[in-house]
Amino acid sequence: MPSPVEFGMTLTRLGLLLLTMVVPACGGGAPEETVTRTPREQQPAQPAPRPPAVDVTGPGQIVGFVFQDTNRNGTFDANDTRMAQLTVVLTNPSTAQRIRSAKTGTDGSFRLENLAAGEYRVTLEIPEGFERTNDHSFVLAVNTDGTAREVQFGIARKKP
After folding, report:
1. Which of 68, 88, 117, 138 is deepest in the core (most CB within 10 A)?
2. Residue 42 — φ and ψ, nearest 5°?
3. Are 134 and 118 in contact (CB under 8 A)?
4. Please, what's the b/e burial string for 112-122 (b: 16 or more CB within 10 A of its CB; e: otherwise)?
């Protein structure tokens, strides 16, 4: 019968070093219990904690529109058309944490409202078969006075 507590080192088939403790049961005739622990440095890595949620309640807003840039000059002109049902994503520029997204309306416009003061990245998800004619991502500072920041995204069909 083992002493009240025996410590031993056991090498597992996976090559991990385990600490095994055998504790005899109290009372007569009951089976003993074995508890095994893996040293902390050999335990599997835990997933990184999620960053805290960004406070996005406030009077700030970002508005804009997406247009098909027919002459590819990166500027909205009389011959350009606005594009509906495209996705614009709002993220935290320092952590890339997605905050929310919006779809462009039938007139190609979008609105991201109720934003706290701070910096935000606004990115257009470019649809298949198109390419950008100006920046597809902007970092904007939103103020507490409620003044809307405007963004215009130009895209054109890819050339064959």
Report:
1. 88
2. -105, 0
3. no
4. beebeebebbb
Task: Report the distance separating Cα 154 and Cα 81, nearest Å.
Answer: 10
pLDDT, tens digit, for every residue of 132-152?
A: 999 889 999 998 887 888 999
Architecture of domain 60-157: Sandwich (2.60)
Q: Is the pTM of this model over 0.70?
A: no
Cβ–Cβ < 8 Å for 139, 93: yes
Distance CA 160, CA 154 (A): 19
Report domain extents, the chain: 6-42, 60-157
The two tokens of residue 22 are 């055998």
